[in-house]
Design brief:
The structure holds two protein chains of two kinds.
Chain A: H1 6-9, E1 17-21, E2 55-59, E3 69-75, E4 82-83, E5 88-93, E6 98-102, E7 107-112, E8 119-121, E9 125-130, H2 134-148, H3 169-173, H4 193-202, H5 220-226, H6 239-245, H7 249-254, H8 272-283, E10 289-297, H9 299-308, H10 315-329, E11 351-353, E12 355-357, E13 360-362, E14 365-366, H11 374-389, E15 403-407, E16 426-439, E17 445-458, H12 464-479
Parallel strand pairs in A: 1-6, 11-15, 15-16
Antiparallel strand pairs in A: 2-9, 3-5, 3-8, 4-7, 5-6, 7-9, 10-17, 11-14, 12-13, 16-17
Helix pairs in contact in A: 4-5, 10-11, 10-12
Chain B: H1 4-10, H2 14-17, H3 42-53, H4 68-77, E1 90-95, H5 99-110, E2 115-119, H6 125-130, H7 132-149, H8 151-156, H9 168-193, E3 196-199, E4 202-206, E5 209-212, E6 216-225, E7 229-231, E8 244-246, H10 247-250, E9 259-263, H11 267-278, E10 282-287, H12 298-309, E11 314-318, E12 320-326, E13 334-340, E14 346-352, E15 354-357, E16 361-363, E17 389-391, E18 397-403, H13 414-428, E19 442-444, E20 449-454, H14 457-467, E21 472-477, H15 482-486, E22 493-498, E23 505-512, H16 515-518, H17 520-528, H18 532-535, H19 547-555
Parallel strand pairs in B: 1-2, 1-6, 2-3, 6-18, 8-15, 9-10, 9-15, 10-11
Antiparallel strand pairs in B: 4-5, 5-6, 7-16, 12-13, 13-14, 17-18, 19-20, 20-23, 21-22, 22-23
Classes of the chains: A alpha+beta, B alpha/beta.
């Protein structure tokens, strides 16, 4: 029986929102540890001796190590509400999940600086907390003045965080479809609820879609067609679908460095997730990486897959398991170089798998993939995908990977090249398995399924021979996959 | 069931009461009827099997109307039960045989009152025929459909099911059969106990006098009005019963539209959204207030929205009134004109396949003859005091007249009506009783369910402000419950609002698996005045969902160390 203390339990309440306390957003070293939020002294100019009032700023907390900006999903409390320590005040969408943020002080929510649906950089004030009612007016005035100019007249200590320029309301005004509001203008396009949800998900402009449903209404099928999605089964996505949709975002990654905007083009600001991807991709430029490709015949793997598929095993699980088993024999490929001076050998083999979900890219992590059996791994994978879909992944479920797997094979891509994620030593790009004429060592021709894998690695720690040896082991496992089921 | 024997012996009133069992149709149910819903009381029924069997001399009399002489003579015979019965046909007449009237009747019989119940339509009222009962049948189907469609959930349990489908008529028949079955159970239970069922519309002719049908007049020492309610349809909305419907029509499930707008997001709307989306419809909510699910604790409402609305094929318009709804005809869809609830400016027009009007219920009090006793309804509701005694237009009590259930509007729930009826009978039989409405639980049978009792957090905080006490909140998650996890249904929250100074429960709200069944531990505690510090010591079987509440009570921090014990501990 899990019997956590009440304070812990009270953090589990909202379904897709995890609770986290206001973090001291100014200390990037410990972004995930709840601590009190910063107490700012408010001095009236011209009266330096005046004692500071008890107005506290509520900062945009850093909810994950990669978060630089958060979007306010909703304010649970409204202006004038009494807050007591530990109460949830606001729901913030970080790059990975929605989280409830709670206060560490009693007081009155005097002013909301960043309204629902808008974003603020980590460390920027999003609301003001007054200790007494008398201070509300003062806080409001302060909020108004702060709102006018660019907010976050941040304390000097706010070194790193505000480096990302505070991009307050102004950006959000023209931003993409904001919160869950059925904002239908006067325009006469009728779309069903499900079609609207899909359109939002796939960033399809409904007004440009021709409806084929009854009375010319836009149906979910129309949106899928417009988004170029092959209509899958109607209900909740099966794992296979997830895997299939996975790499959609990967090309996006590849084309990250964009060209200057052409006249007439529309500018859509990054979502928090897209910002995180962009940041990670830029970071990879500081890592000297190289690539090694390897052809692998997959007839045996395909046969095995057919056999275990009815038991719920997915190709993702098979590949992750094979990679993990190979990594166990080549720990250097599972290592990472954090400071440019040393190897960090990871004690666990955690396979991150790139997945495109809701138009974004996320890498749920199969932890200890070498130790779990195929069935557990497949089950784990389904859970992760479901959680990712619901934006419920915990930070350690997407940022604890030691090796990444990206598979575009289901699109018919025969080979591609992946970008190394920060903090990892290698990433494997898997192409499609295709019937290929192969000549064996005796000169006999045969047709076998062949797939090309391509590993990108950090050459500071992984050298060519290491990678080649790893790939050789990996190909042996794939070509004799019996060991996978053990 | 057989425990009923001891019951009848211990209750002296049972013997004289039996003498007006004359009209009950023999043979009496030797088969125990299994009956419990909407707050009906089982023991009253069990009681019948013994008392009735002593009535071998009784004769059947079905010809109720026009047999006043028979009543009178019989009344003379059996007046021993109470002196008042000598001059009246009955001790108690109840107008309306819904759940409220039924609950009152059973309790009245138990207390030895000679009782008749007047019904102008079908026995069972809204709950049984057009409300709670058939909707539970539809929700049972929708719950299973959801499970079968959730491939991920099934696979996590190791199950494999190929595509799930349904037969609309089969589902509709299930709901209809259930209503029929419960209705006949209800009728039999009353007949078995010797409650006279008088068929015809009842109206109050004057003090202690009721007209049944066209020209039958019956007198009774006391009268309870329990006429219930009908779906409320705001003006401007044209209900055609096909594409623009109320819950009455929807429960027949004559069609499953591709896209249905539900006007109102309270219990009724929410439950139907669960049914329709499970059967493949898309749903659009139209809610006049600024947020969905008004009336629920905001935190629960928010969580419920995340689980019951956002991931489903549902969208919504809040802060809008539907001013005009036109049914589909001439090849045009249903149109719904929306205006802003505050500015009254037209907002947009929705085009959907069907619209369900779930804007609440209006009391059914027309034609009750209230003018004969100088009672003026307020928005249709019959004004009553805290003991359900009817108040006339001068503000005076109308003697011997009570009103329970939806018709008085205090708390429009079937089991509340029944509880009010029982409270009235308690008063009539010499025990003063005031029903604590804050102890009446409510439930919404979505998947997962929502249930609540007492105050919401904002209400509690307002009350605390006013009366100057402290309020605290404790919460537990279903994620920590073994049984919930075994079912793979860890989604859920239980929330306790209480006074830390004395351990009084102010409200409990549950969202999660079987929440509707779990609430009763809390509602009983409120009704009996049990304090949290005492509840903490109560034991729950492991592993059960009830441990969610166990954890909840245990996580509350009460300052009072010793509660005022409600009952002395008994050593065994």
């Amino acid at each position: 029986m899990a019997s956590a203390s009440s304070s812990l339990l009270s953090k589990v309440p909202t379904s897709s929102a995890n609770t986290i306390s206001f973090s001291a957003s100014l200390s990037p070293a410990l972004p995930l540890f709840p601590s009190q939020f910063h107490l700012r002294r408010h001095r009236k100019t011209g009266n330096a001796l005046r004692v500071q009032s008890k107005i506290r700023e509520i900062f945009m907390p850093a909810l994950s190590s990669t978060m630089t900006e958060g979007k306010i999903v909703s304010w649970i409390k409204s202006e004038g509400d009494l807050l007591s320590k530990g109460e949830s005040v606001v729901v913030v969408e970080s790059d990975k999940a929605d989280m409830d943020v709670e206060t560490f002080y009693d007081g009155i929510l005097a002013a909301i600086v960043v309204p629902e649906g808008e974003s603020a950089p980590v460390g920027a004030p999003i609301g003001l907390l007054a200790e007494t009612e008398e201070e509300i007016a003062e806080a409001k005035a302060k909020a108004a003045s702060a709102g006018g100019s660019s907010p976050a007249p941040a304390p000097a200590a706010a070194a790193a965080a505000p480096a990302v320029s505070p991009s307050p309301p102004a950006t959000a005004a023209s931003a993409p479809p904001p919160p869950p509001r059925p904002a239908d203008g006067p325009r006469k396009t009728v779309a069903t609820p499900s079609a609207k949800k899909l359109a939002k998900q796939h960033k399809v402009d409904i007004s440009k879609v021709v409806g084929t449903g009854p009375f010319g209404r836009v149906t979910p099928g129309d949106i899928e067609a417009a988004a170029g999605i092959v209509s899958t089964k109607p209900n909740v996505a099966a794992p296979a679908v997830a895997a299939q949709s996975a790499p959609v975002a990967a090309p996006k990654v590849a084309s990250a460095p964009s060209t200057p905007a052409l006249p007439g083009s529309t500018v859509v600001p990054f979502t928090t997730m897209q910002s995180a991807v962009s940041k990670n991709m830029l970071e990879s430029l500081s890592v000297p990486s190289f690539r090694v490709g390897y052809p692998i015949t997959t007839d045996a793997l395909d046969a095995l897959y057919e056999k275990v598929k009815p038991k719920g095993v997915t190709m993702t699980a098979l590949l992750a398991k094979a990679a993990a088993m190979a990594l166990a024999q080549h720990p250097v490929v599972n290592a990472s170089c954090k400071d440019g001076k040393s190897f960090t050998y990871n004690s666990n083999i955690n396979i991150a798998v790139a997945v495109a979900i809701n138009g974004g890219l996320i890498t749920p992590v199969l932890q200890d993939a070498d130790k779990l059996d195929l069935y557990l791994l497949s089950q784990k994978w389904r859970e992760l995908v479901e959680k990712a879909r619901a934006k419920q992944l915990q930070p350690n479920e997407y940022n604890s990977g030691t090796f990444t797997l990206s598979n575009l094979g289901m699109f018919g891509v025969d080979r591609f090249d992946a970008i190394l994620p920060p903090g990892q030593g290698a990433i494997m790009a898997v192409g499609a398995s295709k019937p290929t004429v192969i000549a064996d060592k005796d000169g006999f021709f045969s047709v076998k399924n062949k797939m090309l894998v391509n590993v990108t690695a950090d050459h500071r720690i992984v050298y060519g021979a290491d990678l080649a040896a790893f790939l050789q082991t990996f190909s042996k496992i794939i070509e004799n996959p019996e060991s996978l089921t053990m | 069931m057989q425990a009923s024997l001891s019951l009848s012996v211990s209750n002296p009133a049972a013997i004289p009461r039996s003498d007006h069992g004359f009209e009950s149709s023999l043979p009496f149910p030797s088969k125990p009827v299994n009956l419990r819903f909407c707050g009906l009381r089982k023991e009253a029924l069990g009681f019948s099997s013994t008392s009735s069997s002593s009535l071998s001399a009784s004769r059947s009399n079905r010809n109720v109307a026009g047999s006043k002489k028979v009543w009178a003579s019989l009344g003379g015979d059996n007046g021993s039960s109470s002196s008042a019965a000598k001059s009246f046909d009955y001790d108690l007449i109840i107008i309306g045989a819904g759940v409220g009237g039924h609950g009152a009747a059973l309790h009245a019989v138990e207390k030895g009152l000679k009782t008749a119940i007047v019904e102008g339509d079908v026995v069972g009222g809204t709950c049984v025929n057009r409300g709670c009962v058939p909707s539970k049948a539809l929700l049972a189907v929708s719950g299973r459909m959801r499970e079968l469609q959730n491939e991920h959930h099934l696979k996590a349990l190791g199950l494999q099911v190929s595509a799930a489908g349904y037969d609309r008529q089969g589902v509709a028949d299930h709901a209809n059969n259930l209503a029929t079955k419960i209705r006949s159970n209800l009728t039999n239970s009353m007949k078995a106990l010797g409650v006279d069922i008088l068929t015809g519309f009842g109206a109050v002719l004057g003090p202690q006098k009721v007209k049944v049908g066209k020209d039958t007049v019956v007198t009774a020492k006391d009268i309870i009005i329990a006429t219930g309610s009908v779906p409320f349809v705001p003006k401007g909305i044209e209900v055609d019963g096909k594409t623009v419907i109320t819950s009455d029509h929807a429960l027949k499930l004559e069609s499953v539209p591709d896209w249905i707008a539900i006007v109102g997001s309270g219990y009724i709307g929410l439950e139907f959204s669960d049914v329709y989306t499970a059967l493949g419809s898309e749903v659009t909510f139209v809610e006049a207030l600024d947020q969905l699910m008004p009336g629920f604790d905001p935190e629960i409402g928010k969580l419920a929205q995340r689980v019951l609305i956002n991931p489903r094929k549902i969208d919504y318009h809040t802060g809008v009134f539907a001013t005009k709804i036109t049914p589909a005809k001439d090849g045009k869809p249903v149109t719904i004109e929306l205006i802003d609830a505050k500015t009254k400016e037209p907002k947009e027009t929705l085009e959907v396949d069907a619209a369900l009007i779930a804007t609440g219920r209006a009391p059914f009090t027309n034609g009750l003859g209230l003018e004969n006793i100088n009672v003026a309804t307020q928005r249709g509701f019959i004004p009553v005091d805290e003991r359900m005694r009817v108040i006339d237009s001068n503000g005076d009590r109308v003697p011997h007249l009570f009103c329970i259930g939806d018709a008085n509007g205090k708390m429009m729930l079937a089991h509340a009506a029944s509880a009010q009826g029982i409270s009235v009978v308690e008063q009539l039989t010499g025990r003063d009783h005031v029903l604590n409405h804050l102890s009446i639980p409510a439930a919404c049978f979505t998947h997962p369910e929502i249930s609540m009792v007492g105050l919401t957090e904002p209400q509690a905080r307002e009350k605390a402000e006013l009366e100057g006490f402290e309020v605290a909140v404790a919460k537990t998650s279903f994620k920590a419950n073994t049984k919930a996890l075994a079912e793979n249904e860890g989604e859920g929250l239980a929330k306790l609002i209480y006074r830390p100074d004395n351990g009084e429960i102010l409200g409990v709200h549950i969202f999660g698996l079987h929440a509707a069944d779990l609430i009763h531990e809390a509602s009983n505690a409120i009704a009996l005045g049990t304090r949290i510090q005492d509840l903490k010591l109560a034991v729950h079987a492991h592993p059960t969902l009830s441990e969610v509440l166990d954890e909840l009570f245990k996580s509350a921090k009460v300052n009072a160390h010793v509660g005022s014990p409600v009952a002395e501990p008994v050593a065994v």
